[in-house]
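Dear colleague,

Thank you for sharing your sequence with our group. We've completed the structure prediction you requested, and as agreed, I am returning the results in plain text so they can be pasted directly into your records. Please verify that the sequence below matches your submission; if there's any discrepancy, let me know and we will rerun it promptly.
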Amino acid sequence: MAKGLRYAYYPGCVAQGSAREVADAMTGLADVLNLDLVSMTGAACCGAGVMKQANWKLQAAINARTFAQAEADGLDVMTPCASCQGNMHEDLVLLQQDAALREEVNVILERVSGTRFEGTLRMRHLLQILVEDVGLDTIREKVINPINFPIAGYYGAPMQQEGACGGDDAYDPSYFEQLIEVLGGKPVQWDSRTSSVGFPGLLSEEKSAMKMTAAVLSDAKQEGAKIMATACPLSHLNLDTYQVKAGKVTGKSTSIPVIHLPELVAWALGCDIDRLAQLRTRALVIGD
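Please find the predicted structure tokens below.
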């Protein structure tokens, strides 16, 4: 592995708010894997698939400002959130391909922040960086606590599009399964690993979102998963917090421990063993 891999780190809103465990895990895994995560002071929300519905140019300008910060340091942007990855990748490609829009946005950026966006960076998800940059062999060598459960890796629908998922297959991905294997787990093969759970439809169409959430959870359980790891903190809200409601709405079996991708990696690398012990207990208590 190359020493001191550096990225402009974009945690996303959820990881800075209701899912602080993501921030803890990112600190641990970055230390073990020698990743230099450069803070993006003042970076704004990516829009979360909501802002562009009202004003897509505003969202493009806000994300261009974030991109410009990374470009100034000569860095790619890394995020642990599939929703941020999908959203920001779409805007990055749009701005790279549309010179007129890029110049229009740059006029705004120069006026409000004194920056320009030229389109020279890449938008990357943590999962891609672990597989493509760090390397699976390197991660395997650093595993201290093999997480020997059948694990369902949930990608998150927003980043499963051409170009947004790195070198992985947008329609039949395997990066998560490969990673689970080197962490000591048994990757579950399940159809719903790229399905949507309806966020942010949860805000307006809760019943539909609960049905989508229940379908994903029950599929993972039916295929033998003891835990689920998610690459999308936004989707994680549905899959974890709303498990009980999703089960009540649909009558499906939805109870399963759900953790974040960074937690899965950090715990396997020897970080925060108390939380790993809690995960083992949760898996045993919930059972089948």
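Summary note from our side: The longest helix spans residues 51-72.

Kind regards,
the structure core
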